[in-house]
Fold these 3 entries.
Entry 1:
Amino acid sequence: MELKAMILGHFLVISLALNAGLLYRDYCNNGKHKSVEFFSFKTECKNESLVTKRDTHVAGRFPFESSSSKVVDGVIDLDHGDPTMYERYWQQMGDKTTVVIPGWKFVSYFSDRRSLCWFLEPELASSIIRLHKLVGNAVTENRYIVVGTGSTQLFQAVLYALSPSNASEPIDVLCAAPFYSSYPLITEFLKSGLYKWGGDAHKFRQNKPYIELVTSPNNPDGLSRQAVVDQDQGMLIHDLAYYWPQYTPISYAADHNIMLFTVSKTTGHAGTRLGWALIKDEEIAKKMTEFIMLSTIGVSKESQLRAAKILQVVSDTHEYRTNQDFREGDSFFEHSYYLMAKRWKQLRNAVNQSKIFSLPHFPSAKCTFNGHTFATQPAFAWLKCEGEIYDCEKFLREHKIWTRSGKHFGDSTKYVRVSVLPRDEEFQQFTDRLRSII
């Protein structure tokens, strides 16, 4: 009977997950209209002369395109942030990131019994520290590294770690709008008695404990962020998934108590499903490790070893760029920086020509890593429909462009989030189509 109950329980969980996914998709596609006052942003493209010089070089270095880069039935799907833009670079790098794992390896649950995060592979830990020191985007000294199955699991783990176990009510989880659309869904998914989604941090007025998420650069609008609520009872989580030099100038080494990163946005390997957290407080790191242990008994060692190799090669392309193993243009962040700059120039030109859309304006700053002075060039475009178009997602769907409505980010339906990370062919077709909408 216990076995039967367990099997039925598993089927129930799978059924709920599938139904939740279908309901969420329906919800995304059928929202009510919501009108607000509209305003314009400046759309000057920064660094145009510098980008133009490198356009030919970027195209020439990676001449081939993946055969899977196709627009099905004329639909351009830019709803999800699938980072397939990076495929061509890693194809060009050949076998440099190939990992061969013998069958006897990784039989044990344990990676390092002496480590607080006992399932963290030492090779991954060292490659994470090396990369952060190279880029200068985060302090790693006197930190505990906790690895998770993507930053999604780490987010759940840190909510568990920060929530008081003896509170009379769930603690509020806040984020300033527009916020990442999955934050509310992930927070509410388990219906936990420890925490609950509290909404827009700008609207929080209660004098009680809270957890605030600070995403910088922000998903979806790309802006740099700081905490909004200023109260003694608050605890902060800094999601720094996009704080890398292809997306934004590195201006300081982040030194926060809790910092989340993910391989998917660092190198484009979303399918590896790996993220890491840099934690100051030992007790928080212990509770996060406990959550991951109880939910998945650790993290795949195969994924960790592959991620470690990829991060090592990224560092190698910069530290050993004069080595015969690497050629001009192989430096990962340099190549990715120019590719993002090219795409944002292309997108701004299409938006300016259409005259019915607008994009945010980002201030320029000098990057301490690469020495370039440039404006943020985010992984997502926060596109606004001007005039009397009040449902931008619906309007673009009529032109077979799938995006994600601003309503899912706690903002107006006049906005949509658009991925800037698809394959070249898709992005070219998107900007061509956008340009033709007059």
Note: Residues 262 and 331 are 20 Å apart (CA to CA).
Entry 2:
Amino acid sequence: MFWCYRKVNWLVKDVSQYSSRMAPEENWKQQCPFMNKCLELRNTTKTHFWFKLSICLLISLKLVTLMTLMLYYSYKGDAQFQAVKYKMANHIKCPATDINYGRNVSSLTESNTTIFFVETSKRTNPTFLTMCSVESAARSHPTTKVVFFMKGLTARSSTQALGISLLNCFPNVEIKPIDLNEIFADTPLSFWYSQLNPWWQPYLITTIADATRLAIMWKYGGIYLDTDIIVLKNLLNLTNSIGREQRYLVNTAFLAFNQHHDFIGRCLKDFVEHFNGWIWGHQGPQLVTRVLKKWCRTNSVTKIQQCKGVKMLSPEAFYPIRWQDWKKYFEVVSKSEAQELLKNSYAVHIWNKKSHGTGFRTGSKVMIDQLSSVYCPLSYKIMSWQENV
């Protein structure tokens, strides 16, 4: 504030000195009304002081507002990975998983498809919803490898001490650290990431997550799922597929593509060419929506079912409940109503960005209670309710 006041004071003095070196007062008053105003301000000490002070206050207010917004959106972006707050045991004795994995571990190679989950925040203690997502995928695909990438892990980290013991109970789940430089290497994202300034990215974690899923699909192929998706059915028949969230919008919470698919390649190119980290979803749902329109040469994705090798799934497949209605997952519903609602669904997206911090009690019969008790029973069984969430 003091520096600002001195700076404004110097500017006004400079204007006054400049005006004194000009023609007589009568001439320049007519030629330069602005200078006339400056001199009047100089001659009125009290007004002069408050003028400078008001300018400083205005500048300071704008700086504080900018910093507040950056901190708020940074927290908001990170909050989406907090999910429902449950305390999970750090170490557990693996119970029987009641899953038929075949005759031996080698049966996991029967499927060439890999299912990927990614945690791009530094969180190393997965939430209940994350554990439920991974468990539901592992149960629905007993002969498929499920890889859970965690940015917070290091190559020497002991996963047994990080609150993720339960996930190690499933032989088809592999928990691995992720190196973003390595993931982005040999893609258009490599140079973009090297130039990224995290201080000017209000949705940094979300932006990194959007980039990572595209890079994984491009380099490895397979199935990508968000960590707030509960899998209900086997997904292996959904090759080169993407799901429509709403009538005019595609979502990236689920992706299933072959390695080096040209559609993903175009998404990577668009990500860099039209990058805007200040708009929520610009690098995610909005990106795949605009790329798909160009891909299919249409102005709307509403009627697209299959186009140039890319299959479009209806909202019921992964998004049977709209994000605007996310609270329905935490409302009591009858078993028959839930079955009718999800009869055409492969999985359900819990909309963690909206629902994080919302809890439920086991046995409450709300929809998420019913889903988790069936599709991730081990996570459901060992979770303990934390009061005052």
Note: The first strand starts at residue 114 and ends at 119.
Entry 3:
Amino acid sequence: MATRLNQEEEAEIHGDVLETVLSHVPSVDLVSASHVSKWWRGAVSSSLRHQNPPKPWLILHTQSTRPPHATAVHAYDPRSDVWIRIRRPPIEYVAALHSSSAASLLYMLSPSAFAFSTDPLHSDWTIASPPRVWRMDPIVARVGGAVVVASGACYFEDDPLAVEIYDLRTRAWRACESMPPTLKDSAAAAWLSAAATEEKLLLVEKQTGLTHWFDPISNSWSGPIVLKPSQPVRSCHVSFSNSSGLIMIGICPIENKETVKLWRIGENDFSFEEIGEMPEECVAGLKSDSVDFSIDVRVASNLVYVYNSPAAEEVVACEITTGGGGCRWWKVRNVVARDGMILNTSVFTCAEVGIGDLQRAITAKSWQFEVV
């Protein structure tokens, strides 16, 4: 009896040590670790729950502008603070890749096809007929069981504010109520920021904060309101996640310099609560040699990634702490940024990538993951 108790105690201590060791292992290596034994599988699961939980990845898709337009994929895993090279079979290209700021969504749009992917690693693609209205710079976002395509209509179209929805269940397009006339002068993704929930799509003018929201179920627009914190802000971006709620990130001019701030927005009264301000050294890294300082944002769960599209040599990550206690900032060096990238186009997505997603990509899709 005593021998059995001693063995259980040793096993319990060994389990704690194993979980601690696994908490320092990159997420992609935990897939193979979970196959060692039933004991190891439990240790991997426990380590991810209690020791070092997963955090949303920043995924960089770099597409060659020359045929056959092959795409290199790299991902930053903040849980282990490593970059990962992802080797995957080529996808069926219909046009250049674009990403949506409103969700973890990649899409391609051509006169003959509309292709999009919404899963975290973008392993599954849907190819559909194109929307009726030809667009060059649209807002594309998944809202519940539909993909909403708004703005970006070409000048020769009859309705520059046309909105169309692709129903994921029926796999068919339907026209919706057009965007409000107040957005006519900014009806393109370059001038609008979008946040998507399961029920609504929020569109915000980046420079003014003018805001409307669209309900696909009732096929109706609401607003306008103006989202403004208690200080001047330009290049504002909104996003929504179940963990952080509705947030805004924007550039603020303060005493002859510019900083970047983050606010939480009340979903009922649209009140503002400042979460944090980006450290000066992080702002300096984003500016780099760029003449026109602007930012773009990708958000998932409680993690915000901020970058300057023209440069993107450095990304700033911000983790919103639970309980409303502020946030933590750090710099992420883009290991993919190299001289000669002018021949490529790069887009970012951000998503919560779980062990199940990695397992499926490795076993069912034959993807390879390599820490770089």
Note: Confidence is low (pLDDT under 50) at residues 1-13.
